[in-house]
Structures are given as structure tokens and as C-alpha cells.
From TrEMBL:
It is a multi-pass membrane protein. GO terms for molecular function: transmembrane transporter activity. Its main location: membrane. It comes from Streptomyces turgidiscabies (strain Car8). This is Major facilitator superfamily (MFS) profile domain-containing protein. GO terms for cellular component: plasma membrane. It is found in: Cell inner membrane. The chain crosses the membrane at residues 95-114. InterPro entries: MFS_trans_sf. Keywords: Membrane, Transmembrane, Transmembrane helix, Transport. It comes from the Bacteria.
Length: 124
């Protein structure tokens, strides 16, 4: 998780600078705002979709487990039922497989839609 967070954090600034270098000075604020808006929208939609996947898998695996309080109490003990542990593992695996699929799809879209060379504008 630390590696992923560090890599994404180091990637964000060059992305914004790269986008800013393709437009004139009068459009840089709009361009930066567009990148940040798209990033936040993607994070929001991704968190909602992957949360829905995790909740759906947990609900299907723990259908007869009772209410949320009993599951939460069971998770806090060392004697958590194996079914609960398996359900959580299945939910996490489903989310990770979904994220891998989304990343693969994004990579294919990038290869198809992205120009081979971005135009770079000179300073004013």
C-alpha cells in the first residue's frame, strides 16, 4: 500500500505539468481544474463501485449471519468464524480483481485514444 501510494503521489505532479504544457498560459487554470475534477470524480465513482461490490459479496456470503453488530463483535475476537473470514477474503479478492480489470481497460483505452506525441507550447 505504501508503494502504491508513493507511486501515485509522485505521478500526479508530472501529469498536471504535462497537461499544462499542452495549452497556453490563459488556459492553464482551466486545464488544471479539469484534471483535478476528473481525478476526484474517478475516485468517487471508483470508491462507490468497489464498495458496492464488496458489500454485495459480503451480503451474499453472510446472508444468514445476523445483524452487523454481531458480525463486528465476532471480528474483534480471535474466535471469529471461518465463514466470516472467508467472506471478507472473497470480498477483498473481488474488489482487487475488479480494480485489475478496470486498470487493464484503462490501459487499453489509453493505447487506443492517446496521441503518440503531445504538443508542447513555448513559454509566452
Amino acid at each position: 500500500m505504501l508503494l502504491l501510494g508513493g507511486a501515485l503521489g509522485l505521478f500526479q505532479l508530472p501529469l498536471i505539468v504535462g497537461v499544462q504544457s499542452t495549452v497556453g498560459w490563459s488556459e492553464r487554470g482551466t486545464t488544471t481544474a479539469s484534471v483535478l475534477f476528473c481525478r476526484q470524480s474517478g475516485q468517487t465513482i471508483g470508491a462507490a463501485l468497489f464498495g458496492a461490490v464488496a458489500n454485495g459479496v459480503l451480503a451474499s456470503r453472510l446472508g444468514g449471519a445476523g445483524d452487523l453488530d454481531s458480525v463486528t463483535r465476532a471480528l474483534g475476537t480471535t474466535a471469529a468464524p471461518e465463514a466470516t473470514r472467508r467472506a471478507i477474503a472473497d470480498a477483498v479478492h473481488s474488489v482487487y480483481f475488479g480494480a485489475a480489470g478496470a486498470a487493464a481497460l484503462a490501459f487499453v483505452v489509453l493505447l487506443v485514444l492517446a496521441p503518440r506525441r503531445f504538443p508542447v507550447l513555448d513559454s509566452p
